[in-house]
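User: Show me a protein chain along with its predicted structure.
Assistant: Here is one chain, sequence first, then structure tokens.
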Amino acid sequence: MTFRTIIEPFRIHSVEPIRLTSVEERRDALRAASYNVFSLRAADVMIDLLTDSGTGAMSRDQWAAIQHGDESYAGSPSWELFRESVQSLFPFRHVIPTHQGRAAEKILFSVLGGPGKVIPSNTHFDTTRANIEFTGAEGVDLVIPEGRDPQSLHPFKGNMDIDALEALIAERGAANIPVIMLTVTNNSGGGQPVSLANVRAVSEVAHRHGIPFFLDACRYAENAWFIREREEGQQDRNVADIVREMASYADGMTISAKKDPMGNIGGWLALNDDAVAQEARNLLILTEGFPTYGGLAGRDLEALAVGIRESVSHDYLQYRIRSTAYLGEALHASGIPVVRPIGGHAVYIDAKALLPHIPPKQYPGQSLAVALYEEGGIRGCEIGTVMFGLHPDGTEHEAAMELVRLAIPRRTYTQSHIDYVIEVCRAVATRADALRGFRITEQPRALRHFTAKFEPLA
């Protein structure tokens, strides 16, 4: 007999207390944080869905591996275990460890970027785009049209638009495109997967034009699971084999190991080009550390070596994807507009559809994020005009979508926590018409969503 309930494939071994707060306490906390949920104290958050990056629970075997950590400055055996684990899924010649994904991006684009260069992707996420623009290069998003429609049920809404990619190469010239990136899954577009056929097609275009092709592979395992579930001919394959095939079409990758590899810290840059790898290692030594630790302790390398193996477990991935869908399907059934199909690591509420009375430049996503925290102590993340609206020249444009991401930390919350999230979202939705927009009172010129200050509009 097959049972409908998907149970967590683990038991709870250690617990961390949650402080239960009142609405009055949360209102005070919001004022103190200038209505930016990034500025809230974690101790004042009841259910923290701000990000799935580094916020998951490590396994018993990962904690045990930490005790094996060798802190030798050079040539640590922990480095060797880490490299072997990475190359078991991503067999690139050079593996360059970093303290997190944005450091890998910084190094890669420092080598390949620069004024006049353009770097296409399906959709660049925030730090990726910022690191590209910091070099003077331009990041261009080429996701398929369905990827910009929250209600489209296309199974692979993270796919890159191949015709648009060909047109960009013809317009700007292959010599001005130092690398083509593909984000799997597509975080900015609702955590939507990329098909294996699309990975193959992007690779073919890139290599035909002599352009390197890299994966932004933060959620490689979740993407591979969706390929197994949704793409014709993939149903009987092992997830690890699908990941290896994805990697086989690429020339390199960047990754935050704080996502699918189950780490609380870490990342890496991996690639095949010897010359680029040498330049990257030179920058690594300047900014991160020696090439065999790259800003990580030996114990972190050991924990990641185990986490990489655990990330492709079918039992884990079935639980992971289904538990996220449980939240998304419940919100959709309640009439709350969400990006569909439900992604792997998060549920994205369509703030533009829920709050049509708030214009994009009054930040409906920010309004919704604030309301969710005030109502029930839930911290989500605006992914809209606050995050993506400010351009390097100082102008502001409306983002393609106005979303609030509820990112689910791995192996951290139980079903009762998620049921509580559903109740809070329903309560906010009942008073959606009363929510008001915000204005920014202070902001930096880049990555403003992290530190900007807001005030509610009358």
